[in-house]
Amino acid sequence: MPFWRKYIFSTDHKIIGLQYGITGFIFLLLGFMMILLMRWQLAYPEQPLPVIGTWFGEDFMPGGIMTPDFYNQLGAMHGTIMVFLGIVPLVFAAFGNYLVPLQIGAPDMAFPKLNMVSYDLYFIGGVLMLCGFFVPGGAASSGWTSYPPLADIAPIGQTVWLIGMVFLINSSLLAAINFIATIFQLRAPGMTWMRLPFFVWAQLVTGFLLLLAFPPLEGASILQLLDRVAGTSFFLPSGLFVSGQPMNVAGGGSVLLWQHLFWFLGHPEVYVLILPAMGIVTEIIANNIRKPIWGYKTMVYSIVVLGFLSFIVWAHHMYLTNMGPAISVFFQATTMIISIPSVVILTALFISLWGASIRFNTAMLFALAFLPMFGIGGLTGLPLGLSAADIHLHDTYYVIGHFHYVVAPGTIFALFAGIYYWFPKITGRKMNEVLGHLHFWPSFVCMNFIFFPMLIQGLAGMSRRLYDGGSSYAINQPVLHWNVVISIAAFIMGAVQLVFIFNVIWSMFRGKRIHDDNPWKATTLEWACPSPPGHGNFLTPVAAYRGPYEYSVPGAGEDFTPQYQKQEK
Amino acid sequence: MDAIPYTVHERPDTGLFNAKLGIWLFLSAEVMLFGSLFSSYVLLRIGSPNWPQGASLLNIPLATLNTVVLIASSVTVVLAWASLRMKNLQRCKLYLGLTMLCAFIFLIVKYFEYSAKFAHGLFPATNNFLGIYFTLTGLHALHVAGGIVVMSYLIGPGSKMWRTDPERFTNRIEVAGLYWHFVDLVWIFLFPVLYLL
């Protein structure tokens, strides 16, 4: 096959998974660099950024000092890029594309051409988003949530954002259809529902979340696009004044309508970010504790319940609006209920560790770190789910600390864990363990120095929307010094990731070659095919004969019994 | 192990071939898309002190004609699939052509409705009723146009598959038909909500 057919317009799920992975990581890095710029501004407001400050031009950073508008653009784009262009494509599309067909014993995805199209749409949408920086007025600057009426009257960058968003949504929809169809239709013989690896279950539930939650945001984006280009007023109330001038629109719209439509996506989206991460972590923990996962079935039921409940909690993001206490009470109740299945999954993973002889490789370290980090992220969410406490906390750094604990040391650690674990599958070589430890420990420490002080600042009442890091308010003075700590930790964190990038590239060419297709002695089906797998995956027809985590079965010759090993009569 | 299983025949335990499951999933997403816009309609209408009656601004006879046309097209698309099941490609193409003809009639009628509105100075920006009317019917018209593209492919270059893989081609007509029924169904909801209520 010619190069462009094999690597650019490929229909092979593994190549598409890698395309998603590489593109996603570039976006992740971009989003991270944006936040580093912002962190400089927050720690040292009004001081010129050394060395690279003047590279951004007079429009964005005159004299190396960031303008408030540029700060807003970076903030909005950091959120958008991290959520829609970084994490979702990585955790769902990249890992899912590579692993789901392998783990269920399928030759490819159910619709390979559609798979290619969804990657292309994602790529176009992502590039469009970035183009926002080059239009007059800069990129979208109304936050990643694009609340109207601010977003309705923002410069043209917001229109670019909306068009990019429609591309991304369609990409996710096609990917979700493909994943669900693959898992339903292409399971190998014997791969019954309760023999599916937990990662596949997580992907299935995530697929349904994307399928059903994203279309309302598409509808909302269409409405906002029409507000901006056709002069409608779906989100513009009557009697709106902008800069002292009455707005010349029909009015009668509702700003809450956008918030409802946005959070109807936004909350299931949170679970889109975390469920596949739980799946990855479960696979790695199961492999490295060398004993069965405790409560596999309970975990499966929990994740299904979690998926269902995530559709009826969205308005807990909106307690501060005037939607009324009766509605708040309903959403407060559902929010408390949804914490139960998450706790069940986390507890099952913790209990699994009990009495195990754990192998502490880099993948396992990241997976283990996921548990308490996600635990902090989840538990700090409870006060936000109670409407009374939320009124104090909502617009403070506490919220930033809370959800970053879920997504950054949570999901991103799971991503790292997954890369260290499946790297031999993809390249046939292991990643360097020493560099892995050098990557893990500083990252783990820095993550906590970045996000824990935010919880402290938030409890002290520091607003999360201040361009100068809060230094102009007397109330923030006692917690202001944390800004410097956070920023320095973030810069070190950035430097440590260079170790990871070096490790990936070095290990690709110089890493220790694996001599066995199953280097971790794992049980799931992806290790039944060659590492790396060729087109069409399995050399011989494959089937599942047992559950996914049969480690240390009494009487077995080895401490693992793969799913593809026939039952002895 | 190169070919993807169940592209043509049904998987015994799910009772579906891949594309059929795919189109049902796609349609469920479409339900959520139109559902969100219908919900927006409800919310905007509740919040409005002077929401106009659809009949006072819109042309009910033309919309009734369009309803009949679309329902007829749903019948012809089933007949197209039935003809293929009876191994008659020519008759299938005839019925598909009739379906496309109905789709075109629908869009032409819609064009006249739109231009009459514009001629009277009624634009999406005029008020939120017209805004949501143009959004919903415009999005629906895009779906009709999408159906025309799919059917012209199936009548034209796509029909070559009939010689190489007749069962798979029959499946494709069925899947296209499911999509077309959905487009029809959306209109069945749009008509009373926008024109009559």
Write a short abstract of this structure.
The complex is a heterodimer of chains A (569) and B (197). With 569 residues, chain A is mostly helical.
Structural notes for this entry:
The complex is a heterodimer of chains A (569) and B (197). Chain A has 569 residues and is mainly alpha-helical. Chain A contains 16 helices and two strands. The radius of gyration of chain A is 24 Å and the shape is globular. The mean pLDDT of chain A is 94. By secondary structure, chain B is mostly helical. Chain B contains seven helices and no strands. Chain B has helices at 18-46, 54-57, 60-85, 89-119, 128-155, 161-164, 166-196. The model of chain B has no long low-confidence stretch (mean pLDDT 95). The chains are: A mainly alpha (569), B mainly alpha (197).
How is this fold's topology laid out?
The complex is a heterodimer of chains A (569) and B (197).
Chain A lengths: L2 H6 L4 H31 L13 H4 L7 H37 L7 H20 L25 H29 L12 H32 L11 E2 L2 E2 L8 H35 L6 H14 L15 H29 L8 H18 L1 H5 L1 H7 L3 H31 L5 H27 L22 H29 L59
Helix pairs in contact in A: 2-4, 2-5, 2-16, 4-5, 4-6, 4-7, 4-8, 4-14, 5-6, 6-7, 7-8, 7-9, 8-10, 8-11, 8-14, 9-10, 11-14, 11-15, 14-15, 15-16
Chain B lengths: L17 H29 L7 H4 L2 H26 L3 H31 L8 H28 L5 H4 L1 H31 L1
Helix pairs in contact in B: 1-5, 1-7, 3-4, 3-7, 4-5, 5-7
- Round the Cα radius of gyration of chain A to an integer and report it: 24 Å
Low-confidence stretches of chain B: none
Annotation, overall tally of beta strands of chain A: 2
* Gross morphology of chain B: elongated
Q: What is the SS-derived class of chain B?
A: mainly alpha
- Structural category of chain A is mainly alpha
Radius of gyration of chain B: 19 Å
Average of the residue pLDDT scores of chain A: 94
Sheet bearing the most strands of chain A, described? 2 strands, antiparallel
- Can you list the strand order of the major beta sheet of chain A? 1-2
Largest interface: A-B, 50 and 42 residues
Bin the strand percentage of chain B.
under 5%
Shape annotation of chain A:
globular
Biggest beta sheet summary of chain B: none
Count of DSSP-assigned helices of chain A: 16
